[in-house]
């Protein structure tokens, strides 16, 4: 459930949860009463038990569509190191599992420094058998978060999945020396939910040939400062934000010779806000944002991509092709270089997070990536302009009974800051600009049992100036969700779900790998047929198109479709010729 409560009850009546618990395993009956927006583990077990065609001979592999990671030409490796192997059984509200980390000896052999790494890949391989909710997990090294994902919900005969994440940007953390690796995956085992998550975490390092060093514009940060909670903790290292007024923060000091600073934010939504985009006005509406606070000022905002976990909406939809970002959640960069002048005074500063309109719970933390001046022990800077007007937006309810009706929400925010930093590279001025918009409609009918949500989040982020690091990033996150059915209250019912979701991104700017386009879109639907509350049929399908084009010649396209657990077709191509120009 990727949530901090024991069982997923937030959108169902408590008594309905009890019904499911009692029913689970002892009968293949589907939960009675109006459905919430999620199907439970028990519901899905009832589907699998009722339909002989779903009997499973061997472990199923679930996968998230992503582009393969390839080391730059001329690289050596991989040098692979198993960092951790663990069976996550009853780990909820317990300290994270830890392992001592020392940089692999091949890193020392390659010259030792972070600059020797041409590609670093963190591989998470896991399996699970039996019945279990999906859980959220995070991986931290020396307090810096490296990976966040949700697990795959198991099938009785088992499920396995693998995530490969490019962690090259954390090269300085990987090379820094001995530290502690921490993994939190809050799982619960009881009489009904027996699925244990077994996971292996492996680091694969590739090294550049001695002659090549990364260009200034693409080199990973020299230092990564975690903006997270410290152990000991009976939780992940993330901050937990439970309401709209709460600001969770930490104090940190920046090295005196920093010349560039980028804050990378990790965020995931849980419990009452897991499906925040479906929330009606009495649930604080459908708009959420994470604001980044530096000494009390809002210096950036993250308008998150709506990651739907593997148990979301109807878990069948995400089998075997899981939802975008669910196994490897996206992160968001906020350029703090314009504010370096403030941070370079050698004193502690407060960096914190709030979530606008939050309900329980949001897990937020960040890594502060810093580039240091190799030729000077101190840099200096100053803020020239800073403009962060209040969020604007509205929720318009067109409902006569407070349930059925149309709810329209909009939001918009602009932030911009310009500052100079003087270092051995000169006196460089940097401007960070964000222009964010959100448009949402939710049409609710049939006494709340039918919902059609259609929204788009657009984020324009720019880093401009006379330095080598410029970037224009345009992200667009369209989302359409339909929940409905027919035959409610009769002996013959159909429960329908439809999801269309997209992650579109255009990048331009300086640096060898900086220009790229990504179009990643899923269209999926599921239907469950009940007769007298017994499952008599279930069907679901998914179609996903992924098209990536990079200015470094790295292109990848994939067109994959599944019906039930079977992949119908799967075309992929790694040449730019196959990538449609957008
Ligand atoms: C973890 O690695 C061990 C040893 O190689 C292997 O036996 C096991 O199957 C792996 N587990 C997973 C979940 O990949
Ligand atoms: C780092 O850890 C390794 C392995 O545990 C140990 O041999 C080495 O002495 C440690 N180095 C430092 C600097 O603590
Ligand atoms: C918000 O959460 C914080 C931290 O849990 C708590 O101290 C505060 O009272 C809460 N505020 C409201 C309005 O509930
Ligand atoms: C944000 O900036 C854009 C372009 O400069 C402008 O059109 C828009 O009205 C601004 N929005 C807000 C909420 O200030
Ligand atoms: C850098 O440039 C800014 C204006 O562009 C100026 O205000 C500042 O004094 C300069 N700093 C140094 C150290 O020259
Ligand atoms: C969602 O709204 C957009 C913009 O109004 C529209 O183009 C699109 O067709 C809608 N999607 C669905 C599935 O209705
Ligand atoms: C995906 O493949 C299917 C089946 O081969 C084809 O009909 C469809 O046009 C393809 N879509 C894209 C976007 O390439």
From TrEMBL:
Keyword presence, DNA damage: no
Natural source organism: Zizania palustris (Northern wild rice)
Pfam families documented for this protein: PNGase_A_C, PNGaseA
Listed InterPro entries: PNGase_A (IPR021102), PNGaseA_N (IPR056948)
Descriptive protein name: Peptide N-acetyl-beta-D-glucosaminyl asparaginase amidase A N-terminal domain-containing protein
Keyword list, A-Z: Signal
Coiled-coil features, chain-numbered ranges: none
Signal peptide: 1-29
PANTHER family hit by this protein: PEPTIDE-N4-(N-ACETYL-BETA-GLUCOSAMINYL)ASPARAGINE AMIDASE A PROTEIN
């Amino acid at each position: 459930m990727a949530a901090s409560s024991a069982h997923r009850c937030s959108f169902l009546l408590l008594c309905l949860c009890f019904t499911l618990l009692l029913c689970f395993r002892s009968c293949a009956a589907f939960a009675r009463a109006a459905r919430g927006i999620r199907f439970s583990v028990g519901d899905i077990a009832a589907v699998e038990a009722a339909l002989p065609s779903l009997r499973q001979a061997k472990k199923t592999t679930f996968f998230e569509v992503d582009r393969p990671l390839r080391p730059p030409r001329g690289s050596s490796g991989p040098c692979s190191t198993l960092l951790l192997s663990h069976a996550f059984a009853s780990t909820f509200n317990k300290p994270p599992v830890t392992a001592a980390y020392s940089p692999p000896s091949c890193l020392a052999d390659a010259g030792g420094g972070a600059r020797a790494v041409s590609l670093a890949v963190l591989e998470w391989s896991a399996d699970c058998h039996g019945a279990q909710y999906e859980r959220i997990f995070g991986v931290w090294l020396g307090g810096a978060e490296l990976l966040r994902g949700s697990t795959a919900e198991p099938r009785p005969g088992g499920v396995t999945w693998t995530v490969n994440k490019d962690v090259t940007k954390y090269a300085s953390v990987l090379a820094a020396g001995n530290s502690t690796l921490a993994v939190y995956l809050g799982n619960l085992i009881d009489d009904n939910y027996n699925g244990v998550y077994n996971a292996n975490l492996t680091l694969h390092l590739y090294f550049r040939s001695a002659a090549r060093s990364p260009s200034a514009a693409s080199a990973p940060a020299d230092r990564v400062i975690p903006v997270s909670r410290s152990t000991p903790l009976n939780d992940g290292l993330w901050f937990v934000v439970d309401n709209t007024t709460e600001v969770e923060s930490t104090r940190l000091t920046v090295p005196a010779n920093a010349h560039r600073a980028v804050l990378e934010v990790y965020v995931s939504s849980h419990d009452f806000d897991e499906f925040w985009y479906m929330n009606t006005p009495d649930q604080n509406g459908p708009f959420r944002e994470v604001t980044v606070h530096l000494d009390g000022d809002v210096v950036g905002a993250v308008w998150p991509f709506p990651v739907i976990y593997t148990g979301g909406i109807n878990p069948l939809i995400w089998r075997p092709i899981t939802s975008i970002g669910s196994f490897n959640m996206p992160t968001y960069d906020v350029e703090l270089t314009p504010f370096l002048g403030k941070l370079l005074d050698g004193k502690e500063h407060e960096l914190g997070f709030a979530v606008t309109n939050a309900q329980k719970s949001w897990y937020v933390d960040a890594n502060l990536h810093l580039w240091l001046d190799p030729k000077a022990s101190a840099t200096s800077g100053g803020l020239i302009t800073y403009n962060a007007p209040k969020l604007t937006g509205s929720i318009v309810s067109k409902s006569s009974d407070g349930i059925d009706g149309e709810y329209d929400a909009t939001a918009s925010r602009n932030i911009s800051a310009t500052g100079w930093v003087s270092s051995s590279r000169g006196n460089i001025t940097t401007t960070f600009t964000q222009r964010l918009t959100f448009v949402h409609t939710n049409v609710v009918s049939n006494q709340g049992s039918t919902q059609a949500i259609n929204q788009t989040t657009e984020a324009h982020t720019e880093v401009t100036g006379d330095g080598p690091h410029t970037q224009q990033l345009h992200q667009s996150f369209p989302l359409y969700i339909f929940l409905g059915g027919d035959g409610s209250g009769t002996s013959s019912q159909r429960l329908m779900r439809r999801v269309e979701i997209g992650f579109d991104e255009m990048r331009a700017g300086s640096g060898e790998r900086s220009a790229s386009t990504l179009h990643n879109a899923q269209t999926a639907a599921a239907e469950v047929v009940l007769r007298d509350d017994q499952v008599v049929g279930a069907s679901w399908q998914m179609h996903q198109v992924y098209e990536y084009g990079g200015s470094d010649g790295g292109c990848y396209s994939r067109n994959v479709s599944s019906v039930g657990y079977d992949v119908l077709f799967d075309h992929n191509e790694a040449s730019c010729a196959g990538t449609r120009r957008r």
